[in-house]
Design goal:
The complex is a heterodimer of chains A (about 170) and B (about 475).
Chain A (H helix, E strand, L loop, with lengths): L2 H13 L3 E5 L4 H12 L4 E4 L10 E4 L8 E5 L2 E3 L4 E5 L6 H6 L2 E7 L3 E2 L2 H10 L7 E5 L4 E2 L7 E2 L6 E7 L1
Parallel strand pairs in A: 1-12, 2-3, 4-7, 5-8, 7-12
Antiparallel strand pairs in A: 5-6, 6-9, 10-11
Chain B lengths: L14 H10 L1 H23 L4 H17 L1 H14 L3 E5 L2 H14 L4 E4 L3 H5 L2 H7 L3 E4 L2 H8 L16 H11 L10 H18 L2 E4 L3 E3 L4 E6 L3 H7 L3 E7 L3 E2 L2 H15 L7 E5 L13 E7 L3 H5 L14 H5 L1 H6 L10 H12 L16 H5 L6 H14 L5 H14 L2 H17 L4 E3 L3 E2 L7 H15 L1
Parallel strand pairs in B: 1-10, 2-3, 2-4, 4-7, 5-8, 7-10
Antiparallel strand pairs in B: 5-6, 6-9, 11-12
Classes of the chains: A alpha/beta (about 170), B alpha/beta (about 475).
Chain lengths: ~170, ~475
């Protein structure tokens, strides 16, 4: 496992104003609970991943419709240099979750982290990832600087991005 | 403050008047001042963080150039791969053709409301006005584009369409257009939230979503868009139909080359190593997908680009529309985008507009440059913009389109300059006459009148005599 890549990814995601947690998969339910407590949000989320994350969080399976505050997806790759997550549309990762929820939670396995965009493109090509309908490279929460060049988060997409790096 | 008429933004030949009006518009000047320093600083920082930006530039240029050198092959391959993934590709020679194609698709879907991501191609074809004329409502969803749609204006910058507006002007527009009663819109946050709420409804209601394209990737048949707000993705994901409006020069060979261009695009445009969202779309939803459009169309516009590629102006087709040349141009920085009177402003617009609309339709634009060269310096594609502008001036002169006074003055000067004795005599007289009238400046610009007693040649001769006497 490449710790340098993990550290760079963590740093870069923080620069991109994303929240980051590194944990083992077994700790995920606990970390998710901490997220809800910290943000004082009702414990429910939308996802179509098959995950056993305990009973305490109400999980709705499916795509996002605009009514859900929190959504959970899994990235297929991450780029440490730029703090970027790559999400591929699929039955288990509906694209609408990436953009319609206020808080987007993303899981990424440490083994799927690559150094830069070039490596990411190579990895994705080998995985035939471009056969999926959509690939979203996400580098932080939605933002705009269209009014007076002042950066504001939460333009149209998620106001918060939370990344769980599974080691 | 003197009230001025709204700038006429539909006439590339009106540059002089439009520029004068822009210089007197205090709101515009405030906005431009702010934008200029912001863009320049952000880009500078991003480039400093890279070991060798020149290397990234060279890579990106090679990727773009090799695609352009074999454009038809790449476009054909792109089309084949889009079709293979279940989408459709349409080719439009003219803006009118593109509009007809898009309208037809919308009508087949019985569309009432269309959401739009940012697309300069659709600005080029005036697609919104055309669809509205046929009873289809359009909602621009990029915040900047939304603001100028409410203001019924054109974008004044290719990546920051509402850069000419102050927050107070945006608040006025929102109060006038959103029936939400009394509310506090002092803060930018409040404006962003209000736009988010208004447009969220449109995203969920729209029948068709139209986005532009930053790249078309031939060997996967992918369309890439680069955004920060996420509006492009909501536009491409939620409606039943996604239409992409693109132009022929956006095609690249493969993902590796796409990556090379992305590495310079964000840094040059907004100073971001990667924009918040870079998305690749490969056809309509798959059978197992829970969301995504069920129909996927790509309409590719030519609008004179093939001709440009076959001309001495072909370098212009490497342009990736990052806007760096606008941000660093002293002329753009002084007058803003609307003065240029067409869709593309700044140095890149001053080259593109005459080429696309006809050189006689935009005679002032190639002259709206000081040739300071900053545009070429900051262009990630190393497009020789000053040289292209100079060639356009040349073409204007050859066709007799240059301003009469300018041609006459240059003609006289050229004639004189070829007769050294007469030239020296005239220049000597000119200097004395200027001094006689005690004028401090020869031209309205900062060109001080000479205050030496003799002409340069006379002084030179004297100093040489002095040298030989001393020896």
């Amino acid at each position: 496992m490449n710790n340098a890549l993990i550290n760079q990814l963590v740093q870069q995601l923080k620069i991109n104003v994303a929240g980051v947690v590194c944990c083992e998969f077994s700790q995920l339910p606990h970390q998710l609970m901490s997220f809800f407590d910290q943000q004082k949000l009702p414990k429910s989320l939308i996802t179509n991943l098959d995950l056993d994350i305990g009973m305490a969080i109400e999980i709705t399976k499916g795509r996002a419709t605009g009514d859900e505050a929190v959504g959970l997806s899994q990235a297929i790759a991450a780029i440490s240099e730029t703090g970027t997550l790559v999400l591929a549309s699929s039955a288990s990762n509906p694209t609408s979750i990436n953009f319609l929820v206020d808080h987007h939670l993303v899981l990424i396995e440490a083994k799927d982290i690559v150094a830069n965009l070039t490596d990411a493109m190579n990895k994705l090509s080998k995985m035939d990832a471009f056969d999926q309908r959509a690939l979203n490279f996400i580098s932080g929460p939605s933002r705009t600087a269209d009014i007076e060049q002042t950066i504001q988060l939460g333009a149209h997409g998620p106001r918060n991005l939370w990344v769980f790096i599974l080691i | 403050m003197k009230t001025i008429d709204p700038i006429n933004t539909t006439n590339p030949n009106g540059f002089k008047n439009q520029a004068s009006a822009a210089l007197e518009d205090t709101n515009l000047q405030t906005a431009l001042q702010r934008a200029k320093s912001g863009f320049i600083e952000k880009r500078k920082k991003a480039i400093h963080l890279v070991d060798d930006f020149e290397h990234l530039k060279t890579q990106a240029q090679q990727a773009k150039q090799s695609a352009l050198d074999n454009l038809n092959h790449h476009l054909a391959l792109f089309e084949k791969n889009v079709v293979a993934s279940g989408g459709a590709v349409h080719r439009a020679k003219t803006p009118a053709e593109l509009n007809q194609i898009v309208l037809k698709i919308c009508q087949q879907q019985n569309a009432k409301l269309v959401t739009k991501g940012k697309s300069m191609v659709s600005e080029e074809t005036h697609l919104n006005a055309f669809l509205e004329k046929h009873g289809i409502s359009t909602a621009e969803t990029d915040l900047g584009e939304y603001i100028i749609q409410l203001a019924k204006e054109k974008p004044s910058h290719i990546i920051a369409p509402a850069v000419h507006k102050t927050r107070q002007q945006v608040a006025e527009l929102f109060k006038h257009n959103h029936e939400l009663g009394e509310r506090d819109l002092e803060e930018i946050r409040a404006l962003v939230d209000e736009a988010r709420a208004m447009l969220r409804k449109a995203f969920l209601l729209a029948d068709v979503g139209i986005t532009g394209a930053n790249l078309l990737v031939a060997d996967t048949g992918s369309v890439a868009i680069v955004t920060n707000e996420g509006n492009g993705d909501l536009t491409a994901t939620l409606p039943k139909t996604h239409i992409v409006t693109a132009s022929i020069e956006k095609v690249v060979a493969n993902m590796e080359d796409a990556g090379k261009i992305l590495q310079v695009l964000g840094r040059s445009a907004t100073g971001q190593a990667m924009s918040t969202y870079t998305s690749f779309f490969n056809g309509p939803r798959r059978t197992e997908d829970l969301d995504g459009p069920s129909a996927f169309h790509v309409v590719i516009l030519d609008n004179g680009r093939s001709d440009i590629l076959n001309s001495k102006y072909k370098d212009m087709m490497r342009c990736i529309k990052c806007g760096a040349c606008l941000n660093h141009c002293p002329v753009y920085g002084a007058v803003g985008g609307h003065a240029y009177g067409d869709v593309y402003p700044g140095p890149m617009g001053s080259v593109l507009t005459p080429l696309m609309k006809g050189i006689e339709q935009a005679t002032p634009l190639p002259n709206a440059s000081t040739f300071c060269g900053r545009c070429e310096e900051v262009c990630p594609m190393s497009i020789p913009l000053p040289e292209l502008l100079r060639q356009l001036r040349n073409d204007q002169a050859t066709k007799g389109l240059a301003p009469k006074l300018q041609s006459m003055a240059l003609g006289i000067y050229g004639w004189l300059a070829r007769k050294p004795r007469l030239f020296q005599l005239t220049m000597g007289m000119f200097g004395r006459v200027v001094k006689l009238f005690k004028v401090s400046h020869i031209l309205p610009q900062e060109t001080p009148a000479p205050d030496a007693p003799d002409t340069f040649v006379q002084q030179w001769k004297k100093s040489k005599q002095g040298h030989s006497e001393n020896e």
